[in-house]
Amino acid sequence: xxxxxxxxxxxxxxxxxxxxxxxxxxxxxxxxxxxxxxxxxxxxxxxxxxxxxxxxxxxxxxxxxxxxxxxxxxxxxxxxxxxxxxxxxxxxxxxxxxxxxxxxxxxxxxxxxxxxxxxxxxxxxxxxxxxxxxxxxxxxxxxxxxxxxxxxxxxxxxxxxxxxxxxxxxxxxxxxxxxxxxxxxxxxxxxxxxxxxxxxxxxxxxxxxxxxxxxxxxxxxxxxxxxxxxxxxxxxxxxxxxxxxxxxxxxxxxxxxxxxxxxxxxxxxxxxxxxxxxxxxxxxxxxx
Length: 288
Hints:
By secondary structure, the protein is mainly α. The protein has a domain at 68-237: Orthogonal Bundle (MetI-like fold), CATH 1.10.3720.10. The protein contains twelve helices and no strands.
């Protein structure tokens, strides 16, 4: 009887077999996500590559040069606004704020803000910067709006980078008589710099591809001058240019639309690649 029960007892998988099955499931899930993305990027770059030329990229009249310059300028100004605010908020939350329900509520609000649709930020920027503060539709209004959009990611990434700094470094600094601010400035921030810069650059990559915020606050198509001369001038930007070509412009070939999309995605991928390279170099330069 015992022998019969042992014969019908199901055999359990060993640890190696379980691990192999788990890795196979993970690879399958990754393939389900990456293959459609790779297919879309492949079609876009193949169709857009036929229309991309030096004349398209360098012409200020019929080309994409004003949109490229406007996008890069907008992202740079966004970084200038978002970086000090986001890093300062992360330093306060991680190093100075007392632990309690208020800080947990603030972190929950930051997480929720990261999930707010970009069109909501665009409408908020239109109401606050364009109308209430009187900036008008300009580079500054668009950068302030995109900075608000990027702040949750900058704060979260910076706080996580600060959390990764070993506590023994803080303890050693305090033991030598350093103040909290001296410890943060000379010990914590330099060691957290790779993660902070990576989060900042990734947030700028997201900002570079957003259409709704600049649609309401910064972008124009028919400009009297192709390049802005001050932060109070409107700009051309690649996301809005692509939106305009796909919805309102007439006589635009499909290859030109694919080419604009390829340039935009290429710019975003370049920003993300810069983040990866910067993180690797800074991590290699600093060893705990």
